[in-house]
Specification:
The chain is of the alpha/beta class. 41% of the residues lie in helices and 18% in strands.
Length: 341
């Protein structure tokens, strides 16, 4: 079975490619490297000892999408490609709508043309907006607090309408909470281009003395210590959730949403403390004003995923921090040896 992975050299995409290859799937990957690095291709091959096709392409390039579908027999698509920074989406919303929504429309039109009607979509807990209560279930009201979340919710609605128009489609909407961690090998992990937008790579760079200080955006939320609380999930657990969702959509039709989280909420200060314990390094931080679009608390109820996908997250915060630090150290060793990062 051959799976097209859009955005397959990114953080979650590369880890999912590893798990797909380990599970015996053939994969075709494309990415434009806007927030990833070409080295992820070779590292994925190195971890799995398996080869796969790669195309450097942009989701908005319809002719490139056509070529990929023309040249390959594709059974299903796992769709990661998209811009993903909440703060940036508030600053440049039109770019987010154009890229995330427009690119998905082109992908779906191309899939329909070549009769590929099975998709696992990378959605987000951002579609729940500011929930009235936690933990969050899939049947909670949907709303958004920022353009990034709005693009994910728009795409979910588009995919639901697509199924209504053609019941042959089978789609899993995976609502991620906050992926962190890295592969045990240290060969792949979260290494964004430029200054990180997400908490863990920023913490790791401060601990490694690559950045001076971590800004904590708000310490006056109605939470246990005033800092934002999130559900952090190991990226490998998250990737395994995609395999389970893929198995599901190959056997059914329809559109179903699934939360992928641990069900445990940790504050920013708790994550910093756990990372300091795992790394043995001090993480310098300062308190900064709240960011537009951020919410106080967000963690998952993943009962539906356990029941319908037979999936549950198994890795704890300690392991997430240890693996993130292992990846940072591996990058440092590559740099010292003069190898590509």
């Amino acid at each position: 079975m051959s799976i097209l992975v859009t955005g397959g050299t990114g953080y979650i995409g590369s880890h999912t490619c590893v798990e797909l290859l380990n599970a015996g799937y053939e994969i075709i990957v494309f990415d434009n490297f806007i927030n990833s690095k070409p080295e992820a291709i070779q590292r994925t091959k190195q971890i799995t000892n398996k080869d796969f096709k790669f195309y450097k392409a942009d989701l908005l390039d319809r002719s490139a999408m056509e070529q990929i579908f023309t040249k390959n027999q594709i059974d299903a698509v796992i769709h990661f490609a998209g811009l993903k920074a909440v703060g940036e989406s508030v600053e440049i919303p039109l770019r987010y709508y154009h890229n995330n929504v427009g690119g998905t429309l082109i992908l779906c039109e191309t899939m329909a043309k070549y009769n590929v009607k099975r998709m696992v979509f990378s959605s987000s807990a951002a579609v729940y907006g500011n929930p009235a209560t936690v933990p969050i279930r899939e049947d909670f009201p949907l709303s958004t607090t920022n353009p990034y979340g709005s693009t994910k919710l728009m795409i979910e609605n588009i995919l639901r309408d697509l199924y209504i128009s053609d019941p042959e489609w089978s789609i899993a909407l995976l609502r991620y909470f906050n992926p962190i961690g890295a592969h045990k090998s240290g060969l792949i992990g979260e290494d964004p281009n430029g200054i990180p937008n997400n908490l863990m790579p920023y913490i790791a760079r401060v601990a490694a003395r690559k950045l001076e200080v971590l800004s904590i955006f708000g310490n006056d939320y109605p939470t246990k210590d005033g800092t934002g609380v999130r559900d952090y999930i190991h990226v490998v657990d998250l990737s395994l959730g995609h395999i389970k969702a893929l198995e599901k959509i190959m056997q059914t039709s329809g559109v179903e949403a699934y939360n992928l989280g641990t069900g445990i909420g940790y504050s920013v200060l708790e994550v910093i403390s756990a990372f300091e314990a795992a790394s043995g390094q001090k993480v310098n931080y300062k308190i900064a004003p709240r960011r537009a679009g951020d919410i106080p608390e967000c963690y998952a109820d993943s009962v539906k995923s356990k029941k319908e996908l037979d999936w549950v997250a198994s890795r704890d915060l300690k392991e997430m921090c240890e693996d993130s630090w292992g990846y940072i150290n591996k990058l440092a060793s590559f740099k010292k040896a003069g190898r590509p990062l």
